[in-house]
């Protein structure tokens, strides 16, 4: 199995955009943590260390023409593909560097307002982590922001032996990496069927393994089959980052900043008795057994006055990202299912269906105002945590043009892919996932084809896409035509208006 500094390089990582890495998303997290957001409109610098395929950086660069984006990865194929996409999209503000972690200090890079690392810290060895920490220490600006994700304890305690089994077995096999992964998965399946204790002692481990079996092999390769795979308690990471002169501010996940959506009242009372911030996070991790922590650190960034924070939040715009017809009046959180009070939520959702809104604008509606500002703000927080709405702006024309050019390149690149892929919304300054048929219909409209049904059929045949209806692949031409007609009409009436509101159509 070919590795570079212990990391898998003979199979490419998956494509995808991590929305919580976006500058606007990070600013909202800072806001709810009473920390002054970064003034993006004044220009900023951003670095993604271990950028993978570079999809996130290219998308955020298109969404923020005012920013200067740099991305680093040691996989030459990843960097070449990211540079190619940046060129096709005409992105002059994204630069990709092929480099090892040991080379970080020698790159001619500016100081950064944001340094982000997703899927890196737990998957590289101690020497690489020392280079990363030195990079943060020397390259983060005063007031700068660091995003760091890592596999956390005690959440992984029950599942860690599963990874060791898979990795060790694959390393003893011959053949390609994909073949070795398949052999390891089949071996562990045999153990599970033979009632091995690691599955019998914790039913969640068996459920997790079944979930793993549904994941793409290239994701499994990078997640579980690197030489280094380290687990961390939150307190250990905080101590590591303190050596780079940055301090923990809170979770970078919106829902993980909302204790009311994660913990019971009894659990919240216990947490309220824990005054030490780091210990409090460790207790939280013990309550929910979190597998992946996404933490935010800052270097001396100023805190906001509560009154300023409220004013900022009241005037911040948000947009709906799920069609109202598809939006259930409930959401599932760690605490369980939360049902929406229709008297409160229906007028708010109806307002968002019309256009992006701020809380201040929502409160101008009598039906919403009569619910009281506190309840309206709580409802907005729940909708944000459920990812039914996201932060939004009113984009200038040059931003719309930049994201449109990137989206055209992404649509062309992903014609062969039948899964959901991300496109850039200039309104969200972030990504929205779009299914394959929706992508074809977007491309059809962009290219001005008058017959969408014929356009979709031709693309399906060229790229060998099939149409699935309730688990059955349709074979007969008339069945396919009929089902496509239904789905195209549903797109026009439901999804297309939302995509237009988000600046994608």
Provide a descriptive summary of the structure in words.
With 505 residues, the chain is α/β, with parallel strands linked by helices. 47% of the residues lie in helices and 17% in strands. The chain contains 21 helices and 18 strands. The strands form six sheets. Strands 5-4-3-6-7-9-8 form a seven-stranded mixed beta sheet. A three-stranded antiparallel beta sheet has the order 13-10-14. Helix 2 runs antiparallel to helix 18 and helix 6 (177-193) crosses helix 9 (217-224). The longest helix is centred in the last third of the chain and has 25 residues, at 477-501. The radius of gyration is 23 Å and the shape is globular. The protein starts with a strand and ends with a helix. 38% of the residues are buried. The mean pLDDT is 92.
Distance between the termini: 44 Å
Instruction: Estimate the mean pLDDT confidence.
Output: 92
Beta fraction of the residues?
15-25%
Low-confidence stretches: none
Rg measurement, Å:
23 Å
- Strands, total number: 18
Question: Short summary of the structure?
Answer:
With 505 residues, the protein is α/β, with parallel strands linked by helices.
Essential attributes:
17% strand; 505 residues; 3-stranded antiparallel β-sheet
Write the layout of secondary structure elements.
Elements: E1 3-4, E2 7-8, H1 23-32, E3 44-49, H2 55-63, E4 67-73, H3 76-88, E5 94-98, E6 112-117, H4 126-139, E7 140-151, H5 160-171, H6 177-193, H7 197-200, H8 203-212, H9 217-224, H10 234-242, E8 247-251, H11 265-272, H12 277-288, E9 292-298, H13 306-315, E10 317-320, E11 330-333, E12 336-339, H14 342-354, E13 357-358, H15 359-362, H16 366-369, H17 373-385, E14 389-392, H18 397-413, E15 421-425, E16 430-434, H19 436-447, H20 452-462, E17 468-469, E18 472-473, H21 477-501
Parallel strand pairs: 3-4, 3-6, 4-5, 6-7
Antiparallel strand pairs: 1-2, 7-9, 8-9, 10-13, 10-14, 11-12, 15-16, 17-18
């Amino acid at each position: 199995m070919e590795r570079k500094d212990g990391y898998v390089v003979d199979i490419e990582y998956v494509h995808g955009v991590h929305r919580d890495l976006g500058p606007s998303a990070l600013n909202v997290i800072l806001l709810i943590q009473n920390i002054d957001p970064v003034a993006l409109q004044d220009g900023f610098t951003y670095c993604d260390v271990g950028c993978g395929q570079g999809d996130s950086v290219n998308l955020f660069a298109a969404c923020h023409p005012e920013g200067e984006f740099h991305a680093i990865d040691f996989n030459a194929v990843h960097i070449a593909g990211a540079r190619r996409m940046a060129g096709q999209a005409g992105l002059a503000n994204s630069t990709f560097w092929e480099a090892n972690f040991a080379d970080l200090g020698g790159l001619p890079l500016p100081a950064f307002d944001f340094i982000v690392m997703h899927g890196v810290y737990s998957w590289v060895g101690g020497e690489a982590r020392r280079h990363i920490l030195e990079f943060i220490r020397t390259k983060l600006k005063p007031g700068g922001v660091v995003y760091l994700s890592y596999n956390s304890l005690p959440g992984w305690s029950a599942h860690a032996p599963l990874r060791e089994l898979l990795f060790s077995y694959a390393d003893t096999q011959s053949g390609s990496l994909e073949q070795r992964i398949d052999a390891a998965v089949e071996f562990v399946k045999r153990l599970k069927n033979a009632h091995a204790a690691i599955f019998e002692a914790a039913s969640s481990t068996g459920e997790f393994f079944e979930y793993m079996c549904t994941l793409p092999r290239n994701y499994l390769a990078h997640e579980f089959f690197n030489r280094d795979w380290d687990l961390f308690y939150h307190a250990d990471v905080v101590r590591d980052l303190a050596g780079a002169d940055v301090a923990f501010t809170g979770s970078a996940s919106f829902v993980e900043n909302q204790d009311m959506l994660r913990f019971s009242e009894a659990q919240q009372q216990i947490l309220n008795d824990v005054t030490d911030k780091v210990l409090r996070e460790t207790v939280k991790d013990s309550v929910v057994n979190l597998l992946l922590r996404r933490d935010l650190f800052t270097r001396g960034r100023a805190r906001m006055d509560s009154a300023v924070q409220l004013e900022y939040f009241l005037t911040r715009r948000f947009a709906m990202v799920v069609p109202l017809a598809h939006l259930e009046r409930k959401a599932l959180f760690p605490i369980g299912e939360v049902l929406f009070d229709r008297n409160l939520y229906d007028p708010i959702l109806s307002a968002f269906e019309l256009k992006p809104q701020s809380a201040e604008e929502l409160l101008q509606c009598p039906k919403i105002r009569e619910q009281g500002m506190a309840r309206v703000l709580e409802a907005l927080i729940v909708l944000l945590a459920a990812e039914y709405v996201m932060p939004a702006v009113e984009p200038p024309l040059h931003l719309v043009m930049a994201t449109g050019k990137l989206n055209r390149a992404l649509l062309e690149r992903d014609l062969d892919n039948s899964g959901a892929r991300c496109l850039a919304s200039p309104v969200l300054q972030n990504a929205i996932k779009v299914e394959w048929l929706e992508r074809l219909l977007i491309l059809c409209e962009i290219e001005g084809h008058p017959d969408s049904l014929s356009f979709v059929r031709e693309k399906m045949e060229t790229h060998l896409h099939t149409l699935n209806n309730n688990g059955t692949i349709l074979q007969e031409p008339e069945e396919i035509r009929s089902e496509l007609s239904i789905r195209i009409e549903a797109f026009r009436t439901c999804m297309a208006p939302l995509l237009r509101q988000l600046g994608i159509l």
